[in-house]
Structures are given as C-alpha cells and as structure tokens.
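Changelog-adjacent note: as of this version, every example in the card shows the full chain rather than a window. The one below runs 305 residues end to end.
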Amino acid sequence: MDINMIDLMDLEDLDMLETTRRPDRHRHRVNPFELSDEDFRYKYRFSKRFGEKIVGILREDLVHDPRGCPLSPEIQVVCALRNWARHEIQDDTANLHSVSQPVVSRTCKKVAEILSRNSREFIKMPTTLNEQQETIRKFRSIANFPTVIGAIDCTHIRVKKVNADGGQLYINRKEFSSINVQVVCDADLKIMDIVTRWRGSVHDSRIFRECRLKQRFEAGAFSGILLGDSGYPCTPYLFTPLLNPTTPQEERYNRSHIRTRNTVERCFGLWKQWFRCLLRGMFGDIETAKKQLLHVLYYTIWPLT
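Full-length structure tokens:
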C-alpha cells in the first residue's frame, strides 16, 4: 500500500476521533442557589437559607483558582452537603453537578478540613456568667433539675474496617469498627463540645477522664454541672442516675435526671437523621472520617429543630 494512502487513512481516523469526542460537560454547571426553596431542600435536605449561611462563612477559605473551570464556593459546599446528608454514592453527586467523582471526593475532604480548622469558633461551652445562667435556666425548664449546664454521652460512628496495626482496637462491643464520639449538648440540642479521636473499643468514662473539658470543670471554669448516664463516675460536677432508688425522692431524682439528660440522645438522633453518613457509616480513610465528624459545625451554626 502506498505510504501516502496510509497517512491519509490515519488523518481520516483522527478526524473521526475529533468529531466523536465527548463535549466538555464540566463547563455547564447550574448555580444550585437559583433553585426554588422546595427544590433546593429536596436535593440537599436543608433550606436554601441554611446553605447560603454556610457558603457565607466558608467563602474565603473556598476561593478558587480562576484558571481552567474551577468549582465555585457554592458548588463545593452543596457537593459536600449533599454527599454527607444523603449519603449517596459520589458518582450521583458528581453527575448532578457536572463534575467527576474524584473531584467530589477531594471537595468533601477539603470542606471537612476547613470545618475542622474553624470548629472552635462555633463549638464551644458557655463561658460568661450570663451565658451559663441562660443555659441552666433552659435545662431547668425541662424537668426542674437545677444547675445543669450540659448533657454528655458518647455515640459510635461506623467506619470501614481498619487493616493497619491496631485496627482491632476500632472494634467496639457490638463487634463493628467505629469511632466513639463524645458530645456535650445544651437544652436546645446545640453541640457545645465534641471529641472525635477515640477508637470504638475505648469506654465512655475513659474518654471523659482524659478530655480537656474534665480539667476545665475541675478548675472551676463552670458554675453548673453535667448530666451523664451510669457509664460515668458520679462526681461533684457530673451527676449520674441512682442505680437502685428506694425512696420517692430518689425516684423523682431519677425521673428528672433521665428527662433532662435525654436531650443528648435526641441530639444524636437528629444529628444522624440530617447527616445520613453518620447513621450508615463513614467509609473513607480513618483520618478523613475523624475530620468529617466535625461537620457538626453545620449543626451548631443553624438550628435544625
């Protein structure tokens, strides 16, 4: 065959490849905040006003490189929010926003890291006397239990099996791998303190014993007390229920204690319903999972109740 004929065939093949090349879908992204309130809530499980609040807080940290076709702060926030709230496979989130699955994965990790860096600004115990008195007043209105400043408990968040050395330490008493997360919330179910670094096999009492919050209570930083379940030791600043009440007074104490401390259980339930990844499990690498647990920052910025 003539060489020129071969070259011509090659050129025709190249022309065919050029004409069948897929269009660049990444340049046709719709601003999700142009959706109606109803459609926005359907897609992202939160109100548009809530999403705008989060974008406003994180915008400076999500400023993008103007080269190429970068993701706007709005797209980055809603990608992470949808992925965490709906816990769908990342390909579905990617298709909805005209990006690739690896981009969604990197975006979720980036947003989680920013949230973890800024978490202290929003997740904090009441410090002034007025703030503490208002927190105590709200708790007392539940079941007349005095001087309560917070309800404390731990919850297990499922993670994928850790195969590295020490991976068996993530297996909890229910025989699945998890992170044991300690939370203190107020009467409005707002999270005021959180510890996300402990493996699933660690007992609740040890997490509290070695946390900074315990040191602050012992140093007299707060005028109120915590309420915890019987897994915690009873101390002057952490009250637990009586195991064998024998008098009417002790029974009333237990009833009031249970009703008041139930706020943290409700907090867990609401938290996991809004963020389905916490209900079903977080299956990225373990360090990213710990950082993503701090996206409760969303919950502390805006009431979900």
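Structural remarks: The first strand starts at residue 148 and ends at 158.
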